[in-house]
Write a structure and sequence with these properties.
Strand order of the largest sheet: 3-2-1-4-5-6
CATH class: Alpha Beta
Number of domains: 1
Order of helices and strands: EEEHEHEHHHE
Helix content: 40-55%
Strand content: 25-35%
Radius of gyration: 15 Å
Distance between the termini: 37 Å
Structural class: alpha/beta
Shape: globular
Number of strands: 6
Largest sheet: 6 strands, mixed
CATH topology: Nucleotidyltransferase, domain 5
Length: about 150
């Protein structure tokens, strides 16, 4: 690296049962799967995500935001927003929402034929988080993603 410190980010792919986690850095734009966290109980999932952010020295967390194809927020997108708000309120990190439509599909396609269905599902969430983070880096998400404000 030449004089510029890498900005480290964590990305999460929230789901009803599991939350995929990936880590990566800019300006390299590299991201890789880190962990899969149980989504319930909710407070323990939030605590684990914040712990992983600290372990990886993340300056921010990108939360996958599964918008509908017409750009509206459905129930899953609202759940992702709630998770992002809870994380933002519980730590001093920059928390962003990032459109993650089709990230799970992309991860599933990458794994298809390589693992049993059960093992594929276990890894799919973390790979989807890595896909979210790669897209965030590629599209300059730090400058364009919706930032979650902390309560006053």
């Amino acid at each position: 690296m030449t004089g510029r410190q890498a900005a480290r980010w964590l990305a999460i792919d929230p789901g009803d049962k599991r939350i995929g986690v990936a880590a990566g850095s800019m300006p390299e734009g590299l991201a890789g799967p880190v962990d899969v966290v149980d989504a319930k109980p909710f407070d323990k999932a939030v605590a684990r995500i914040i712990q992983l952010a600290a372990e990886y020295g993340a300056q921010g967390i990108v939360v996958g935001w599964p918008l509908n194809m017409d750009d509206t927020e459905g129930p899953q997108a609202l759940d992702a927003r709630k998770l992002a708000q809870t994380i933002a309120w519980a730590c001093d990190l920059d928390v962003r929402l990032w459109d993650e439509r089709l990230s799970s599909f992309t991860a599933d396609q990458a794994l298809k034929g390589t693992l049993t269905r059960q093992k594929r599902r276990a890894r799919q969430d973390a790979l989807a988080a890595a896909a979210i983070l790669q897209d965030f880096f590629a599209r300059n998400g730090a400058a364009t993603a919706e930032r979650i404000a902390k309560p006053r």
